[in-house]
Write a structure and sequence with these properties.
Elements: H1 2-25, E1 27-29, E2 37-39, E3 46-49, E4 52-55, E5 64-75, E6 80-90, E7 94-100, E8 123-131, E9 136-143, E10 148-154, H2 160-180
Parallel strand pairs: 1-3
Antiparallel strand pairs: 2-8, 3-4, 5-6, 6-8, 7-9, 9-10
Length: about 180
């Protein structure tokens, strides 16, 4: 039994050291992105976007890679604004990029799909600024072979626990006000 714990501990130390090593060798991308960034996954498939380390090695054979990484939010609890970092790639080379993206609520930042060189196999990283919970947007990638992939995204929707916590705090504040005004609960 004790030997099993030792093996488990050694495996855990190995995994942590591998993760630290991958983090040291990763291509580092600082966020937020005010202009697109192109990363050659052939040169290094490990990318550190802000605090998140992503190893694309298992996904290199996929025809398309598309993901959204929540960078930050601002605004109010009822009217949020999200700045999202997007990542896109066509394994065989990107031919076109199109999408339905809401206008940016930030007058200093324009939401636009990035320009690129046709045939690029680089991972393209760029930011979008989108207002509201659950706001949908789509991006369609077409590779040089004519294959397409339409990625459908939404801005985050508050999880039920957060809504419950917010509602409970609101009710507690209302009860406190009633007690202070002498009306009782």
């Amino acid at each position: 039994m004790r030997m099993a714990y030792v093996k488990l501990l050694l495996a855990l130390v190995f995994c942590i050291s591998c993760a630290a090593s991958a983090r040291d060798d990763a291509v580092v991308i600082s966020v937020p992105l005010n202009s697109p960034v192109f990363v050659s996954l052939a040169a290094n498939p490990v990318v550190m976007v802000g605090p998140r380390v992503i190893d694309f090695t298992p996904a290199l054979n996929q025809e398309f890679i598309n993901f959204v990484f929540l960078q930050q939010s601002s605004g109010t609890a009822t009217d949020p604004v999200f700045r999202l970092t997007m990542g896109l790639r066509a394994r065989d080379g990107l031919a076109s990029l199109s999408g339905v993206i809401p206008l940016s609520p930030d007058s200093s930042f324009v939401n636009t799909l990035p320009p690129f060189t046709v045939g690029t196999t680089d991972l393209i990283l760029f930011d979008l600024v989108i207002a509201g919970y659950g706001t949908p947007f789509t991006i369609t990638l077409t590779d040089i072979n004519g294959q397409t992939s339409t990625a459908e995204f939404n801005t985050p929707i508050p999880e039920p626990a957060s809504v419950l916590l917010f509602g409970t705090a609101w009710l507690a504040a209302a009860a406190f006000r009633r007690l202070r005004s002498g009306q009782g609960v």
